[in-house]
Request: fold
Amino acid sequence: MKDTLDSPLVGRSVARVEDPALLSGRGRYIDDLPVAAGTLALAFVRSPHGHADIRSVDIDEAQRAQGVVAVITGQEVAARTRSMTVGVKADVDCWPMAIDRVRYVGEPVAMIVATDRYLAEDAADLVVVDYAPLGVVVDPVAALSEDAPVLHPSLGGNLINERRFRYGDPEAAFDAVPHRIGIDVTYPRSACTPIETYGVIASYEPGEDAYDVTANFQGPFSIHAVVARSLNVPGNRLRLRTPPDSGGSFGIKQGVFPYMILAGIAARVAGAPVKWIEDRLEHLSASVSATNRQTRIEAAVEADGRITALDWDQIEDCGAHLRAPEPATLYRMHGNMTGAYDIPNLAIRNRVVLTNKTPTGLNRGFGGPQIYFALERLMDAIARQLGLDRLEVIRRNLIPADAFPYRTASGALYDSGDYEAAMDRAVTEGGLAELYARRDKARAEGRRYGIGFACVVEPSVSNMGYITTVLTPEERAKAGPKNGAQATATIAIDPLGSVTVKVASVPQGQGHRTVLAQVVADKLGVPMAAVRVLADVDTMRDAWSIASGNYASRFAPAVAGATEIAATRLRDKLAKVAAAQLNIAPEDVSFAAGRIAAKGNPDNSLSFARVAATAHWSPGTLPDSVDQTLRETVFWSPPGLKAPTAEDGINSSLCHGFIFDFCGIEIDPETAEPKIDRYVTMHDCGRILHPAMVDGQVRGGFAQAVGAAFLEEYAYGEDGSFQSGTLADYLLPTVMEVPDPVILHHVTPSPFTPLGAKGVGEGNCMSTPVCIANAVADALAPEGKAPDIVLPVTAAKLAPRIFGDEPNPKNPVPETEVGPTTGGRKLTGEGRAVVKASRADVWQMLLDPATLDAIIPGSHGVQKISETHFKADVTLGVGPVRSRYKADIELSDLDPPNAVTLSGQAAGPLGTGGGHGRITLTDTEDGTEIAYRYEAEIGGKVASVGGRLLDGAAKVVIGEFFRALARHCGGSARSGLLARLIGLVDRIRKGGRS
Amino acid sequence: MKPAPFDYVAATEMSEALDALHQGGTEARVIAGGQSLVPMLNMRLARPAMLVDITRIPELSRIEAKGDQVTIGAAVRQSALERWPDLADRLPLVRAALPWVGHAQLRNRGTVCGSVAHADPSAELPLCLIALGGNVTLRSRRKTRTVAARDFFQGMMSTDLAPGEMIVSVAFPARKDGTGFAFREVARRHGDFAIVACAATARPDGTATLAVGGVADTPATLDLPADMADLDDRLNEFAWHLQARDDLHATARYRRDLVRRLGHTTLKEALSCRD
Reply:
């Protein structure tokens, strides 16, 4: 779009200044940055277990490997660091690397520094960790039970924090109404997934005792304090820098900080700079995810659908460690727990539990998806129970337009809005009537079609004090108040009069540099091209504070706002300088078209550059009231962001946008696949600075929400194994899966921000998952009790409701147990083989190490420890996937020569396995039939990346063993056609299921 | 995510490749498109000591229609087959299935025979090969042999390929008059591994064969008579006997549902489009 100088740039979709570099492959991401000569590569050894004690870590062989400079264990890291700060009062350590216990699959156990990444990974394979597996708990509710395995013995349990809150008089409100309506909601684990994984480049300068870390960290820079403390240096001895470009973050890159500590220590130990780029398996299994949450929510409801009180009971699962800034996910929404509704009474019980899963952290929508899924599913349940129109129930509870600024029960001050007007416009302009007609037609034809709604308040610009709501008022009083949200902006003018803007905002593709150029160019009357913006951070050179960074949708309201203030200050000074040179009053000065002129007399003018550079070339000519015009730095913290009150009231965010969504979803009658027919999303994000980028934010959030609704889940087995280790298991939506939403805007500018803008980046991550769930519920059951919807909504989950009871087979299916599955990755299977040998001979073979060594495919030796205890060294696998394992096998329940139970553990570079199997021998006409039945659990890498194939692989491996046994016995007992038929049957019979 | 060390032989002649495979034995793997093998190497799931690259051997890049079959060399990319002008006429089933093989970028590198060699139970091309009753030609230094597709696939990622052997080509029977074909698949996303893939062939006499991938460890077939009165019962028995399993993406029950429903529509479509 052409930039013209006669209309403001702000509010127009100008071409983005970032794009020429990004679209021509010239972005400067962390992996592109030049590194110092001699920079070494870093790689990690990670836990294959969800929960285990570390008996020993043997690094001898790894240290001797080619190219290895250092091998560093958790013990050594602990000796050189302090435990990372934990955000609640609890007797618990939080180390960046496991010391004596691992608590999730993927937890770092050792790190290798080597001359290149290949050699570092070769050496990582040589580190031998002796684990003693412990009981595992992955479900937050189960983690609270008395007999659950405890992750951190010093805590005495897995509950690390509990708080109850009460606002207004919720008990009286519940007593006074005819209806108490409640639902239970399970919100699963998922995360927005950046293309670019974590990256860190670190060095240590012994002469200064200082660390220099470059990381694709996104903020908040409160984490700088956590890292410096853990590294045991003052803040000025940790220089933290970010690359100019980022390949996406969505909150996730906040979680890179433990690796800043580890890379710093690695550089220090190795005596050279180190570089680490996380790989995809590391990222999916061990970066951070959003929290999963179990919620009970109840509402006190009048007969007309008016809600007078809400009662929340939330159990938050933060994974294996409570890492800063958690449990912030649970508290970010604390001020807006009543959503878009005028509900005066509120009770909240919040419990934070630890489980054997990856620690959680920032993620787009941060806390919003979890609460709005519960709240908006509840609105649907209320309408169903009272037989009211869903939209009418929403409407009756909306905060009225004349109530703004509106103070919520829990203390947020909503800045602006006209929710009902926005909703009405969405209904009309988004074509709800037409969607109803489509639903009616579909239903008349017997098709499954549903419409869902969601109404969401989107907070932005977090109050850094909200997280202290997790502390009791007494604890807060002791710790001192925490509040505010410092945003910084610096505008500098160089001797040629051109303008540079510097902010500590760390953009991840959002176009911050474009918007700031728009804002400053408008203010100073210069073309956008005359303004250059830098947005990467260097903590040793830049103005920054703990709130710096790119999160909580703070850019447009806070960072652009601070820049607007800085530009205004500079302009006012330049007006005085120009006024003196033009012989007019400062208020008569105008800035336009690159010139500074007298209002009403454009001939009396000077070039902007000339006036702007005056402070460089002839500071003596500046008017007395102007100190300098070289550089203006503004720190702006919104005055409304106060610390929590003694009553736990918290204005958790500065701005509160509004979203109203509705959608139509049809479920395919043949395949049960749900498909979005139309999606309408109405936003009030205050003043819009760049319409195309705002819509881009909406589309991006929407796409990720479609992923959360239909595709994405970080899945764990009951044994703690991580099952979503590749992008073929953790499914991100592509352009094929994401329809184009209808985007509408209704603008009520924020009175609390300099530009009137609010955040807009996260809203659809909050509204879309539940809007989709409500539509699916409507499609499944238009009336009556609301079906429980657990994301992701897959065709497989819908199938029983769509297709009804399954027809049974007429003929029995051989040896297949049909029943509910546990959801874990337990492999079970059974099979049989017939061999030409007597029962006694087969028995002898099964117990003889020499025979076993001969017949186990890939055996490198079987060692007899006792009559019932063997150790084996075997190469196992299918197709090209092969790896060497050390196995420990014990025999029990011996019933010679009829039956024996084998149980064992195996461990190798690809993972670990454990299981047991029962073998029974029976006589046949001319030999022995060996029947076997096994149950096994597989963990580690192979479970994370090969889950789809594990059952089949187990069948192949076990089948190979018995085929080899049969060969050893002189072949199958029957020959010719009969044997071939039996072989075929066997192939079918050797079933396994999970 | 870097591979363990391996030797790399970029063969330019068959004999060179076969010698290398002979020397490498069980520790050697053929690499062509690398779309399955390279991720396995990078994750160190596979650690062959030697990779033998066969894409530079000229005679392996041919697609030949001779008599009643179409022979596809081991280095023929899936996208090359997709662009083969006679595909719609000679191999309408393969034409219908190819767009379901990953994405265009994967098909630009991936080979037809590589997919057969890999023997993923969800893969479309092994399914078509079995549905059409094709065969696989294997060669070692010592001999060349041809194996029927139904015997070649032995289990998940397990085939009849012996150490020292490589696939030199696969052969699909070409379309005959009066036959009909259909292909349908359900996956979580477009291009994902099939939850269930159905390939159906219908003959002039009204008999038909349904092949199903993604459920059992290898593609499975069901032959149907011209009288399809009890089709749904047969499909139900077939669905149950495939012994479907639960995984992250689908339940065993859903897989059975799809075998019954998708199987039905795929068969009907094949029967109705006979020409």
Observations:
- Chain B has three domains: 7-53, 61-173, 180-272.
- Chain B touches chain A through 57 residues (CB under 8 Å).
- Residues 223 and 273 of chain B are 18 Å apart (CA to CA).
- Residues 252-272 of chain B form the longest helix (21 residues).
